[in-house]
Amino acid sequence: MLDALLSGARAGQSGVLVLRGEAGVGKTALLEYVVGRAADAQVVRAVGVESELELAFSSLHQVCRPLLGHLDVLPAPQRDALSVVFGLSSGEAPDRFMVGLATLTLLAEAAETEALVCVVDDGQWLDRASAQILGFAARRLLAERVAFVCAARSGVGDATLSGLPELVVPGLPEKEAWTLLLNNVHTPLDAAVGAQIIAECHGNPLALLELPRTLTAADFAGGFGVPDSRDVPERIEASYSRRLSQFPAECRLLVLAAAAEPLGNLAVLHQAAGSLGVDVSSLRVAEDAGLLTLGGRVEFAHPLIRSAAYGAATLEDRRRVHDALALATDAEAEPDRRA
Ligand SMILES: Nc1ncnc2c1ncn2[C@@H]1O[C@H](COP(=O)(O)OP(=O)(O)O)[C@@H](O)[C@H]1O
Ligand SMILES: [Mg+2]
Question: What are the domain boundaries of the chain?
Fold first, then answer.
């Protein structure tokens, strides 16, 4: 379906697909596949972040920012509407319909010369305004050479971009689930234990990768017997919490700070670490464990690590890191975020 969407866009037929499924089932992996296949096209991306839910138009801005060079060719009322919502000019809050129309025109203009692939991840956390506008545009794409693919977590994201064509991402079939499990378990695995892990993970690849990490040798030898009534993503998150709880306190505090900082901005994190009195190098432990990476940005290997870190923290620690992050956030440039 994704290949068809891409070739359609190349041939001048826009297409839309919303990927739905539980956390860890492989939605982001499928979006990466799309991006990998779109080398000949322009790609714009946005990622919903839970703590940015209240910042109107923040996700739409991620999608449109690389395309704003085309702003000049938009009809004046549309251009003005987008300029105001992105803070490029001042004016009264524009009509939502005009913003939607402007977004549609902008996408169409950008796709005039080459196919445009628009990839939105974690759609369940799009701010409402962005979800509304992107949905408006996605419903009206016709012959613009645009492929629009969005992933949304089932449950919390069920209402996100509803009414658009969708693909429910199922778990891996049993054979593939076994392959993935056995490729990543490096101790002898009791056949009955393996069968139980397979049964309980329901083919969720992240569960197959993560849950065996916090099982003990005794569990592997046949003690993995207590049925767990929680759903799969909850158990993945609990496994992450268990791993995090074994890190040194300074590392945990910084992982919490990173979890509370929506943009993965390293400079902000450095400054926040300074006011917390902790060295950023303490994060190395979490990095070595594969839970996050510090490249140009701080990136969690999966959003469930972020929620595990935040959920496991004490109220006092959360206050401390939010305080430090606010101090590190520019009051002039980003007053909303600082607040
Ligand atoms: N088909 C697959 N085979 C093997 N591993 C997979 C597959 N799909 C996803 N994964 C792995 O499972 C983990 C979770 O996938 P991800 O795409 O992040 O899930 P989601 O975005 O649905 O929460 C990642 O480590 C990913 O590499
Ligand atoms: Mg994902």
Answer: 2-168, 174-229, 244-338
Q: Which residues surround ligand 2, an ion (CB under 5 A)?
A: 27-28
Q: 305: closest CA among 215, 233, 232?
A: 233
Predicted pLDDT at 298: 93
- pTM (two decimals): 0.91
Q: What separation in angstroms does the CA of 191 have from each of 198, 205, 220, 226?
A: 11, 19, 9, 16
Tokens representing residue 100 in the block: 């939607």
| pLDDT single digits (tens) 205-221 | 999 999 888 876 666 66
Ligand whose nearest atom lies closest to the CA of 120? 2
Ligand located closest to 33 CA: 1
Work out the percent of the chain whose per-residue pLDDT is above 90. Answer: 80
What are the Cα distances from residue 201, in Å, to 244, 264, 289, 326?
Answer: 21, 30, 22, 39
Taking only the tens place, the pLDDT of each residue in 130-183 is 999 999 999 999 889 999 999 999 999 999 999 999 999 999 999 999 999 999
Nearest residue (CA) to ligand 1, atom 6: 205
CA of 204 relative to ligand 1 center, distance in Å? 8
Q: What kind of fold does domain 2-168 have according to CATH? A: Rossmann fold (3.40.50)
Ligand 1 close to Cβ of residue 313 (< 6 A): no
Residues 6+ apart with CB under 8 A from 3: 37
